[in-house]
Design goal:
The chain has 294 residues and is α/β, with parallel strands linked by helices. The chain has one domain: TIM Barrel (Alpha-Beta Barrel). It is built from ten helices and twelve strands. It has an eight-stranded parallel β-barrel, surrounded by four helices. A two-stranded antiparallel ribbon has the order 5-6. Strands 10-11 form a two-stranded antiparallel sheet. Helix 8 packs parallel to helix 9. It starts with a helix and ends with a helix. 39% of the residues are buried. The N terminus and C terminus are likely disordered.
Length: 294
């Protein structure tokens, strides 16, 4: 098998789990995926975009799902909220999962508001023992209801709490160990938070429980000098690419995808960026990648 063949290997690995390089499925690219095969191994959907009874979103989702494996990524679970879990929302997520059979379902380590106000944002958790206990119990409820492990993403953050008892990476590691959930490691979010809070991003990566990492996110951001905002509306910057390479050398190969949520370019441009991820991954861990795809 040549290096190029390895990089374009099928989206299912030898053990039957999702593999390869994916993109976030976005409305402007629906027809591209229908009209011709794309150099994309799998797709990630935003769950909330398809929690509907019918219409165009589900029509296109069903059509594209015929050709591409998918994962589900939510933004409304609010796993860290003090409010009761929204079981109606979880029932919709479970029904969508039955429809498309995703390789996994993910959301974020965050809260999104209260029963009286949804901020439609990923709000930071205090890194305390009390918050950790709360999250572990809630993750258990969700995993029991969905009957599968939940995959949770490290969110980018812009403030911290005086009451914090853990570094973020230690908090995340404890959550994974105690709850049995898996980790969606957003490398861009690690970089964004490292600038905003003044820590070394490699310290975060070094502490990640490697065996629990199910997926990697890559994305662009807005750089405002002394702070960074995770906007998903730019190309990935060199420092994030470098951190991605370091991550793969540290934890080994993990399925990787690129997010773009605003200023969405033609699909060919995103596929070219995905090819850069392939090249970096090949250089970082070709022996592991070759063995996985042989």
């Amino acid at each position: 098998m040549t290096a190029s063949q390895t990089l374009l290997a099928p989206a299912r690995s030898a053990n039957g789990r999702l593999d390869g390089f994916g993109l976030g499925l976005r409305t402007p690219h629906y027809q591209d995926f229908i009209d011709a095969p794309q150099r994309v191994d799998w797709l990630e959907i935003i769950s909330e975009n398809y929690l509907v009874d019918g219409g165009k979103p589900l029509h296109y989702l069903d059509r594209i799902r015929r050709d591409y494996p998918m994962v589900m990524h939510g933004v409304s679970l609010s796993i860290g909220s003090a409010d009761p879990l929204d079981m109606d929302y979880l029932a919709q997520v479970k029904a969508l999962a039955r429809r498309i059979e995703p390789a996994w379902i993910s959301d974020h380590i965050c809260w999104t508001g209260t029963s009286s106000m949804n901020m439609h944002d990923l709000l930071p958790m205090p890194y305390t023992r009390q918050a950790l206990d709360h999250l572990v119990a809630r993750v258990g409820q969700v995993q029991d209801f969905l009957d599968r492990p939940l995959v949770l993403e490290n969110a980018s953050t812009y403030v911290s709490f005086h009451c914090d008892e853990f570094a973020e990476w230690d908090f995340v590691g404890e959550l994974v160990q105690r709850s049995g959930c898996e980790l969606l490691l957003d490398v861009n979010n690690v970089y964004v938070s490292s600038v905003n809070h003044g820590f070394a991003p490699r310290d975060y990566i070094d502490a990640v429980p490697a065996a629990a990492v199910r997926q990697i996110h890559l994305a662009g951001h807005e750089d405002h000098g002394d702070y960074i905002i995770d906007t998903h509306d730019h190309a990935i910057v060199d420092l994030v690419w470098d951190l991605y390479a370091y991550t793969l050398r540290r934890i080994g190969w993990v399925p990787t995808m690129i997010e773009r949520d605003d200023h969405i370019p033609p699909l060919a441009e995103l596929v070219a960026e995905l090819d850069q991820a392939r090249r970096i991954a090949a250089a970082a861990c070709m022996p592991e990648r070759t063995a996985a795809c042989a």
